[in-house]
TrEMBL record:
CDD domains: RT_LTR (cd01647). InterPro entries: DNA/RNA_pol_sf (IPR043502), Rev_trsase/Diguanyl_cyclase (IPR043128), RNA-dir_DNA_polymerase (IPR053134), RT_dom (IPR000477). It holds the Pfam family RVT_1. Residues 1-112 form the Reverse transcriptase domain. Gene3D superfamilies: 3.30.70.270. PROSITE patterns: RT_POL (PS50878). SUPFAM superfamilies: DNA/RNA polymerases. This is Reverse transcriptase domain-containing protein. It comes from the Eukaryota.
Length: 206
């Protein structure tokens, strides 16, 4: 059996959250906070409407939109196109949260200037002033913040090599002679350096 749903699809309310009672159904006019799928739904919408211009002169992440251009003239044209798309999809921005024609910008915890991606100074300060964690949740929070900047921290690359590269061990050379001796009560009180010297003296005597 084949069912044609075209007529039903025409009258179906798409991508909206409905609240129904015995008398009527209502829906949000704007994206509600708190719903599990709200960020995913909004992210999908933003990527869909800006798809023709993504990575050409627009980068979007949820409600953060960055417009980048080579010249001021291009920037004006690109900005007009972005506003046109927002208007067509009934999306609005607050003037107080907008800035234009900037040579440097902070975006998603990073600082962008002169075609370079850098760590945000406020985040660096937060890492430097972070109190030593004493509990597991505190440690996880700290590692989460630091891990966000892993590509800027050389120690992460060293740690990555240490846990991913196979260690190379030297095979035992049976042609070499080994010697050992038991320390007496006095020698047991020696420092590490004194014990090393004692071992050298013992080796030379034997």
């Amino acid at each position: 059996m084949c069912i044609d749903y075209q007529a039903l699809n025409k009258v179906t309310v798409k991508n909206k959250y409905l609240f129904c009672s015995l008398l009527t159904c209502t829906t949000h006019l704007i994206m509600p906070f708190g719903l599990t799928n709200a960020p995913t739904t909004f992210c999908t919408l933003m990527n869909k409407i800006f798809h023709p211009y993504l990575d050409k002169f627009v980068v979007v992440y949820l409600d953060d939109v960055v417009i980048y251009s080579n010249t001021l003239k291009e920037h004006v044209e690109h900005s007009r196109e972005v506003f046109k798309i927002l208007r067509q999809n009934e999306l609005y921005v607050k003037k107080e949260k907008c800035s234009f024609a900037k040579e440097e910008v902070s975006f998603l915890g990073h600082y962008i200037k002169d075609s370079k991606l850098m760590m945000d100074g406020s985040k660096v300060k937060a890492i430097q002033e972070w109190d030593p964690p004493t509990k597991v949740p505190q440690l996880r929070s700290f590692l989460g913040l630091v891990n966000y900047y892993w590509q800027f921290i050389k120690a992460f690359e060293d740690l990555k090599k240490a846990v991913t590269e196979e260690p190379v061990l030297t095979l035992l050379d049976h042609t070499k002679v080994f010697e050992s001796c038991k320390l007496n009560d006095m020698e047991m009180c020696y420092t590490v350096q004194e014990n090393e010297m004692t071992a050298i003296v013992h080796y030379l005597r034997t």
